[in-house]
Amino acid sequence: MSIGLSAVDSARADRTLNLTHHSPVAHGMLRLRVDVADEVILNAQPILGSMHRGAEKLFESRDYRQVLMLANRHEWLCAFSGEVTVAQLIEAALGMEVPEAARWLRTLMLEINRITAHLAFVAGFTWSNSEDALVVRRLREHWVEHVQQYSGSRMHPMLTRIGGLTHAPTRAWLCELPLLVQRSRITLREFSERVATELDTLRGVGTISCEQATSLALSGPVARSSGYPIDLRSHSENEKYSELDSWKLVTQTASDVQSRITQLLDELMVSLEMVAELSHTCAAHFEGDINVLLPKVLRVPEGNYEHSIETPLGIASWFLVSRGDKMPYKLKLRPASLHTVLALPTALKGARLGDIGQIVSSMPFVAGDVDR
To answer: Which of 85, 103, 206, 345 could bridge across to 309 with cysteines, CB 3.0–4.6 Å?
Structure first.
């Protein structure tokens, strides 16, 4: 049986999942080939490659400044993470020191990016009451609108430049963040109380043990919901997490659908605390430089370079081979979503066919990140 994740994929699938149109996992052309007996899933295999965009070849036909734009558009829910990672890779290769104010602002925007991404997945879950999802979608809209006031874009901020940022936010924009954080805390606490009973019914559904998470090379909230405490923010030298009092690593232990949604909600609360703290620190660095002077033509010294970052979906790793030209000779990406999708067979095996929607929508991934 072929199952399409998107409702518009019925032409080439035997059936489609009843996911909401705004669920991020339904945006794309990913399908599952499923073997079923007595309404129990015996085996599930993701069918990849339907929307392959040749992103890595495009990276290698652009100069380093232009690569930032492509990396930004690669994974549209955490676009800022993409552009920052490539910039950090090039900065490390050049031995470039990024100004302190820019590092603080990058950390702030990375956590706001995490908030908007996690809210999209929480809202896209198959809640029995559509009003619950609507509350989260409205909250996400407030955050997206606030980012738009700074960057001018809803999805692709393009705030990063090699050596820093394009421009700083206004002081008024920073001062509005604590109030937005406070409103978000209240909304999410009330939401968590309303859906607690529904989540309790999903205990033991779609389990991925800690041992399975490590063997599948999982990262991000899916790994942490299985008790695997992996998070690159713990020892990042490019961002400012180590200097934050509000930063902490949260994990779950049950390894099921309920744990994965709870993990997203817990990480949202931690990110809100960090944004509140970061807004005050960034305001203190408001007058500092946020970028460095760059040459007209940027060339990376010949060699091999690697850099990884903790995106909202997990660890994304970039590998650069430079021949000393203004364009990368090779630039490869290990996307955060890939191993999450490859873990679907483990989560689905032995589950009831009727639970497939809840299991898939509890696994945060974006199809475009997989079919790069």
So the answer is: 85
Which pTM value belongs to this model? 0.95
Topology of the domain comprising 55-109+126-341: Cytochrome-c3 Hydrogenase; chain B (1.10.645)
Give the pLDDT band (50/70/90) at residue 281. very high
- Rounded to whole angstroms, how far apart are CA atoms 263 and 250? 8
pLDDT one-digit tens code per residue, 291-304: 999 988 999 999 99
> Is 133 in contact with 261 (CB distance < 8 Å)?
no
Cα 91 from Cα 85, distance rounded (Å)? 10
3-state secondary structure at position 33: strand
Contact 216, 209 (CB under 8 A): no
Going from N- to C-terminal start, the domains of the chain cover 55-109+126-341
Question: Which residue, 255, 242, 75, 270, is CA-closest to 185?
Answer: 270
Question: Residue holding tokens 């809803």?
Answer: 154
Give 155's pLDDT tier (boundaries 50, 70, 90): confident
Beta-bridge partners for 49: none
Residue 337 CA, chain-centre distance (Å), reads: 8
Amino acid at 100: E
Please state, in angstroms and rounded to a whole number, the distance separating the CA atoms of residues 173 and 162.
Answer: 24
Q: Rounded to an integer, what distance in angstroms lies between the CA atom of residue 24 and that of residue 364? A: 8
- pLDDT digit string, tens, across residues 301-339: 999 999 999 999 999 999 999 999 999 999 999 988 899
Closest CA to 267 of 291, 298, 239, 246: 246
DSSP annotation of 168 reads P
Cα dihedral across residues 166, 168, 173, 176: positive or negative: positive
Confidence of residue 11 (pLDDT cuts 50, 70, 90): low
Alpha-carbon distance values, 103 to 10, 206, 282, 289 (Å): 46, 39, 9, 10
The Cα 360–Cα 6 span in angstroms is 12
pLDDT tens-place string over residues 137-154: 999 999 999 999 999 988
Report in angstroms the alpha-carbon separations of 169 from 148, 150, 172.
11, 6, 8
